[in-house]
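The passage that follows is intended for readers who have already worked through the single-chain material. We present the inputs for a multi-component assembly, then the predicted structure in tokenized form, and finally a short commentary. You are encouraged to pause after the input and sketch how you expect the pieces to fit together before reading on.
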Amino acid sequence: MKITFDWLKDHLKTNLKEKNLLEQLTNIGLEVESVESLSSENQLFKVAKIIKTEEHPNADRLKVCDVNIGEKELKKVVCGATNASEGLITIYAPPGAIIPKTNTKLEIAKIRGVTSYGMLCSESELNLSDESDGITELSKKYEKNIGKSYFSKSKSNLIDLSITPNRPDCLGIKGIARDLAASGFGRLIVSKEKQIKLKTKQTLKVKINKEKEQGCTAFGSCLIKNVKNTASPQWLKDKLISVGQKPISAIVDITNYVMLDINRPLHAYDADKIEKGIIVRNSKSGEEFTALDNKIYKLEKGMCVISDNKGVLGLGGIIGGIRSATEFDTKNILLESAYFNPRSVRNTAKKLNLDTDAKFRFERGIDPLSIETGLKKAASLIQEICGGDVSKIDIQKIESYKTKTINFDVNSFEKIIGFKISQKEIQRILTDLGFIIKKEKNFLKLTVPSWRPDISQQIDIIEELVRISGYDKIKTLDPIKDRSKSTLTHTQRLFHFLQRAIASKGYLETITWSFTDQSYNDHFRETNKEVKIVNPISSELGVLRNSIFSNLIMYMSKNLDRGFKDLSIFEIGPVFTGSNPGEQKTVVCGLSAGKKSRLSWIDKERNIDLFDAKRDVVQTLSEAGYDSNEFFIDSKTPNYYHPGKSGRIFLDHSKDKVAAYFGEIHPNILKKIDIKTENLIGFEIFLENLKISRKTLKDQKLKFAVSDFQKSERDFAFVVNKDVEAQELINVISNVNPNLISNIKVFDVYEGENIPDNQKSIAISITIQSSEKTLNDKDLEKINNSIIEAVQNRTGAKIRS
Amino acid sequence: MSDLKKIRDEFISRLKGKLDLAELNKIKSDLFGKNGLVSSQFKKIGTFDVSERKKFASDLNIIKDELQDLIDSKINEIQKANINEKLEKEKIDVTLPERSFLRGKIHPVSQTIDEISSIFSEIGFSVEEGPDVENEYNNFTALNTPDNHPARDMHDTFYLDDKKERLLRTHTSPVQIRTMLKDKPPFKIIAPGRTYRSDSDQTHSPMFHQVEGLHIDKNINMGHLKGCLNYFIKEFFEVKKIKMRFRPSHFPFTEPSAEVDIGYEIKDGKIIIGEGDQWLEILGCGMVHPNVLKNVKVDPTNFQGYAFGIGIDRLAMLKYGINDLRAFFDCDYRWLNHFGFDPLDVPTNYRGLSR
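Having made your guess, compare it with the prediction:
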């Protein structure tokens, strides 16, 4: 909402300065977004006369004009307008001026080799009208103004307010003045309505159809006959220009002025173009009409339209139509002032994707009791400027406005806000805001002003009171440092633990969008449901991610393109399994590219591989408190992993839920997305699949018990079939005698010479220790034999001698 | 007798010569080996008369000690010389680079969330979460923002179906609804998380982060809200004093509502929070609307309190001097490395929020 202090002063008597005004506006909730000084810049645009025109030496369509701008010397200006001719009085913009339409600063420029000192402006460039064909043509009257500024001087700055959607009353300057006055900033001027003689009857019949969901509840109108529509007088033009509006013609300007002044949207029809009478009704499906924006709208059933016998004239409260638009030669006009239901306006505008000033106001709620005031205010101005005879006012209604009352308990203010204001002050503020107060025994009975659709209950009154009293009066009550409930749940703690544990292994944490490119997502979607966004910001961000890999791979690729080679990144966040709330999982997903070591004076070069990722996952899980000796690992993994070089981890042998996957990303995917790296290894840890210990560390720590008896290490080499997994051997061995076998480590795998085809040798080092005694040779011999026997029997292995 | 002296003199003189380690070991075994000269003398002790035995044994031990000490010190000397010689050869250029390592980092948004949680933990808030996909009711209707309310225009919503029943939450406020429906008052929670709006330009990202706050009890008034936020902002920006301004505003789910500005100034191109006479809007808040409490079956005549919503990314930008919001989600290695935090830098109240 754009206002000026000058305009406010039509409604507000005050001696305070603009600086105070700006502060006060923000203090009462009418936030000042920006303040710009239009006038000082506008002063640069001067009335000028073209003295001579010559053809541009290098361009057919351009002219070089000598322009009198009231200085001794003529200015040379290059101009492309066809109407630029000798003797024309027009508007000149010097270098340094900012062109209102484009908001660009004019500079001295060479145009096809000829220097142009400034520019001759079209009306559209100055936001005076939509006329962009040719430069502005001023009448001979302006001859005496040559060299003077075209725009009248205004001291007022343009103040742009951000009005919250609950305050339609402040979409009119008067409403803002009322709020300011209530807050002690000046006094509201009660303007007297100009009395005009309303002699004739309104002869054009208006009918509101009584239908279900009728969006119009009241329709006021008057006929004004024999008007002469002209350009607006300067004061009106200045007023509109001062708040950034374009003057068009007197009738349109007057309706705009009344709308801006008291937030009463009006519409003027050319009465001669209305066939018989007006019918306000619901639209039929498929009806069409051409709106003032020159677009044809195809209507759905049930939209509130203003129509005549021939069809739709306009969309109620949104936009008028071309057919009945007023023009400069309009003689008889019908002025409309109606009440349209906010819901209906909003629904229709949304369906037709239409946004107009009227719509913005009606959907927030127009004062239903302003119909007559608005008509009278506009009619008297029209009569004053355009002449004509104004008919009596006709108001059709299908519903009467019911005043709202609220019983207000004055003590409720302190309970919610924390400080006290006197009942006297309460009554003063509310009276200034337009409430009618009746004192009852324990409460105030308040009648809500008709222009405040936002007020319906006690809390709304409390808000008004604190807003006007000042938020600075609210005390600052320091919080008490006390905690009765733990801050994080066990799951949240695990989340934070995993996040930092992975980062501590050299991974950079990333945060990527929860949505992704469908084609990337498809690589990792498996059998999951695709969750589409109906209105994505771009087609590349059209689906919710089924896996974090899609984004990580995309960004990994970008980083590799930046020239980084060896890189580990991860993200902890949601992946989606469906489009219902809660159909999401928290995943820690990591991705590493390149080599583990590269070009080193000390180490051999080595590509990153799946055992690097496996270490990171296993180490992280053990750090998080899960016993890695219990883990069960197999090679069943989703299709986006390399089928032979990937694995999944269960926390124990019950294989209940997959705790994690790790492995190489499938080579086909790498090929398809054309990512260039030596190797690409990923992992996923599923937070919800990790069992959360309800025990705190205090309870988890068991009694400290270690054996000080001598331990022995024994190495074994078994020859087994290739498809036997190392894990199987380890399982068998650990079950031989868990009391004595404390550590099992695979230290070599060998295939080739001396080993039959389809077989491999696995070398295992086993630590044997008793907690009761030092084992003697005989004991050790016995356990060795048990180990060999068990492994051979259970896995078909042979001990290698 | 003379035997012992003879042995002693002979070997003392031999040991005076220049000997290597092998020669010394040879002498050692000649003397003290199983059948060494000294060892065999010990075997003789029993053959002496009791009267002479004592003296013989004593003399023998003196000679033994003398020779042994001499040999040991000679060996030591040589070993020391050997080590020194070896060390001389083993000198390495220690300025050569160490084995390479990768440094992981925590994203500034995660770090900021941890900082926020730590601060609110001190005054008794616990952390709640909610899903990213919400239904229309929790995101809007329950929050007193009925369908066709112009306030919905302020949220450019991503929808997941044509009926607009499923959406990506546009704020963290639905967590208020879920929390209050699930439990009984009092409530004292914060809810950090991802939020989404179909908006994308220099200063808007289609995904960003918010933290919601909610405190509902019997007598929580707007003064408590002011106190809580004043405390939070001071702690978060790690300053002693903060200039803070409450401005009336409007949100459908709170009434009265306020926007909060903090004072700042620009010094040497860097933003200084808490000083200066410029205002910066950082959050929205207010007293929870009675309609919202009714929607979650909390009696507004009995319980009241406040709620607030803060943009986490924006807080991180202000605190750590980050200019571009979009860079948060661009995963540029250089950016992550520059603005990221060491994983060991866990914000806590006893060691401080940041180093």
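Commentary: The CA atoms of residues 125 and 189 of chain B lie 5 Å apart. Strands of chain B lie at 126-127, 133-135, 166-168, 187-196, 207-217, 244-251, 254-267, 270-273, 278-288, 304-311. How closely did your sketch match?
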